Amino acid sequence: MNTFSLPKKGEYPGYYDTYLSKIPDENFSVLALQQIEELKNLFQSKEPGWDSRPYAAGKWTPKEVLGHMIDTERIMTFRALCFARGESKALPGFDQDPYVLNARFGQVPVENLLADFEAQRKALLTLITTLSESVLDNVGNANGNPITPRALFWIIPGHFIHHFSILKERY
């Protein structure tokens, strides 16, 4: 399965509308692969050192934004896998700021982060091909809220669009 419909309201907490409203009506796989190239092109188009400077005091650097995107995609993918497999236990939330702080993305070469992002996306796509469309509607609980694997999968490219726009506009 490489294409599946966007989630309907009620399949996810309302605060994810921020990300899901940004999704163009596209094939999931095409969008996911396109985003890999867009990200690599953006980082390669910038001058050396760009990726290590925040746009304002207290903000993340582009490398930290990229690391945050990778971490979030891993967490969303894990949640989707759990619920697709029938997990009935609630999964915890996560606080993004300690994740970024503890990851020390500033010490990781940007080439490694870009390769990691691409590997995560390709792993996501291979996972999706193994799933029956019927499991996409399983309802699980993450961070105290009901959510489906379908919604979790689509939040991933929406989250990307949100942060990619910030990278392009503010950095």
From TrEMBL:
All residue ranges annotated as the DinB-like domain in the record: 52-165
InterPro entries referenced in this protein's UniProt entry, alphabetically: DinB-like, DinB/YfiT-like
Organism superkingdom: Bacteria
Annotated Pfam families: DinB_2 (PF12867)
Protein name: DinB family protein
Organism: Algoriphagus lacus
Gene3D superfamilies per UniProt: dinb family like domain
SUPFAM superfamilies for this protein: DinB/YfiT-like putative metalloenzymes
Taxonomic lineage of the native organism: Bacteria, Pseudomonadati, Bacteroidota, Cytophagia, Cytophagales
